[in-house]
Amino acid sequence: MRLTEHPVLRFERGREVTIYFEGKPIKAYEGETIATALHAAGIRVLNYSANEKRPRGLFCAIGKCSSCLMVVNGVPNVRTCITLVEDGMVIERQRGKAKLPREAKPPEFRNAKVVKADIVIIGGGPAGLMAAIHAADGGASVVLLDENPMLGGQLVKQTHKFFGKREQFAGVRGVEIARILEGEARKRKNIKIFLETSAVGIFQDGDEKLVLAVKNNRELIEFRGRAVIVATGAMEKMIPFENNDLPGIYGAGAIQTLMNTYGVKPGDRVLIVGAGNVGLILAYQLIQAGVEVKAIVEAMPKVGGYFVHAAKVRRLGVPILTRHTILRAEGKEKVEKAVVAQLDENWRPIPGTERTFEVDVIALAVGLRPSIELLHQAGCQIRYVRELSGHVALRDEWMETTVRGIFVAGDSAGIEEATTAMLEGKIAGIAATLRLGIADESWLKEMEKAQKDLVEFRSGPFGRHVLEGIKKALIGGVASE
């Protein structure tokens, strides 16, 4: 199931190691996650639900759901989608609730390591990287942490070329943008980077912001700064249909992670739900990896993504079925079939229009929602804004929330494109240094230029609804209905 050839990507795998899944040796490579290695070995069922004992498999692949929790070296509830393999690692399926082994000793809070900086940035995707680079250039000391084993966020799985201006990476593939931004961040001596580090809370401690985090599931760290930028991205949405929890049903991003980051085929035959840009781009990425795309189903009466993407998919022979939805997935321990049907004008399935596709993967490209949990916990005012795809933190034009010194950027501020995430990250990074009195006033012009570029990028037909959402998300803005 591992890819050896790809028209765009080259996969450089680390040293071969052996992990043990329920007593069976499995070949893996250093630098890949546990879930990836198991998937490459054909193992789809990772755990069983607590109440109904139903099988569960990989879904989001970015550590934001519970579908991949397993027992690793005797420790339960390990997020195997973001935990890297180690030689000799012992892995077992988790069956419902599990207890820590008696010999396990959780780290003590009083022994937490302390790391100080002017600005703490949570999230190493496009927004977080741009915030770190510009805050550092403005003279601030910066700590950048991300719970994943690599920087880049969604960029590391995007093989398509970006639109927009040259200075916004037009014509450059997302995977290459990730490498460029990581290189820029790593060459700045006033940026310290912590990977595999999960932030679990933001607190005020005197004049400092305290971000409590856990590194490698073992070490507690207190990150202290005068400002915090939250760029935690988003998580996949789910839609209701029968058996929507079967292994083999993935968020679109998880499939991109398997294919484009780790070079592992998600399956052989795929049905995609959702014909927005993500679903359309995913279709030809799957074809690039040698996977058959049976169809794309879309509940709306027309395709939601760019015409150029839809045209490319159709030329490759993939049917796009508008006014259709998925009714159910079929299979015992994993997906074997998908049943779809046509919808009437009242969004109800039309009897007699059912079609069955023999597939081993169902890809849900039905949108994302902002990850606002840390912002909510920190006391930032939250509002539901439909145009931004969910609950978001209120902020001003400098991306500062209702809690002084806490800024937000990227998909955690509202679901848009990677280009807007980078521009918001730039604004937040500069704004934080200005608020702290570190950067001089010459940086105001740079921030104003980024704000202008942001308005321009949102001025197209796909950005109009976002602009309405931004108005509602601004402090003092009109609440959504």
From TrEMBL:
**Which keywords, in A-to-Z order, does the entry hold?**
Oxidoreductase
PROSITE patterns attached here? Answer: 2FE2S_FER_1, 2FE2S_FER_2
Identify a single GO molecular function assigned to this protein. oxidoreductase activity
UniProt cross-references to Pfam families, sorted A to Z: Fer2_4, Pyr_redox_2
Checking InterPro entries in the record gives:
2Fe-2S-bd_N, 2Fe-2S_ferredoxin-like_sf, 2Fe-2S_ferredoxin-type, 2Fe2S_fd_BS, FAD/NAD-bd_sf, FAD/NAD-binding_dom, Metab_Enz_Cyan_OpOx_G3PDH
Where is each 2Fe-2S ferredoxin-type domain found?
15-97
Source superkingdom: Archaea
- The name under which this protein is listed is 2Fe-2S ferredoxin-type domain-containing protein
Taxon lineage: Archaea, Methanobacteriati, Methanobacteriota, Thermococci, Thermococcales
